[in-house]
Write a structure and sequence with these properties.
The chain is of the alpha/beta class. The chain has five helices and six strands. The longest helix is centred in the C-terminal third of the chain and has 35 residues.
């Protein structure tokens, strides 16, 4: 084998398609674009799913469900993953899982699933632990630490808390005004004693 004998494998390269060079090649007059129309013009491009003007498929199908934009980004971790990456006495939480690169930086919540066999005695302190996984962890002598309940998250939660606080103040103020009005009316009305029966 010499340098001047090197060549690409058979079928690896093909000659360039030369269009508009006469009818003998079959790509002559219209260069393979057909007769008049939008597709034969230069610069034509169509949107994905375009069906020539009729109602496209993605608009004919009914909508179903929705995407909760406030839902935390969740990652599933199995018991076999914990057994393969942790030792006895270790703590499984968000920090240790990130250190071992088992979850990404954008993960906000971890769910421990009952999948595989747990061979380590560990302390699990993550967002959620399924019932079967909890029983398996406790059976090995491990500990499951449940996080404190979180009612609202992020900016939306702060706004909702602020609105609820403002609403409670307003309702308390209106209630006090109503009570005050009743007391004023009661004080203004003369006290009438019932007549003694004869």
């Amino acid at each position: 084998m010499k340098l001047n004998e090197l060549k690409p494998a058979e079928g690896a390269t093909r000659s360039r398609k030369r269009v508009g060079r006469g009818p003998g090649s079959g790509l002559g007059k219209t260069a393979g674009r057909g007769e008049n129309g939008q597709k034969c013009r230069r610069g034509y491009s169509r949107q994905r799913g375009f069906e020539g003007g009729q109602m496209p498929l993605h608009r004919r199908l009914p909508k179903r469900g929705f995407t909760n934009i406030f839902a935390p980004v969740t990652k599933e971790v199995t018991l076999s993953t914990i057994s393969n990456n942790f030792n006895d006495g270790d703590t499984v939480n968000m920090e240790t899982l990130r250190e071992k690169k088992l979850i990404g930086a954008k993960i906000e919540q971890v769910v421990v699933l009952l999948s595989g066999e747990l061979t380590r005695k560990v302390t699990v302190a993550v967002g959620r632990v399924t019932k079967g996984a909890r029983e398996a962890i406790l059976a090995k002598g491990g500990i499951v630490i449940d996080p404190p309940p979180v009612t609202k998250r992020g900016k939306r939660g702060k706004l909702l808390k602020r609105a609820a606080k403002r609403w409670s103040k307003r309702s308390a103020r209106s209630l006090s005004v109503a009570k005050r009005g009743k007391l004023v009316k009661r004080a203004a009305s003369p006290a009438v004693k019932p007549d003694a029966k004869s």
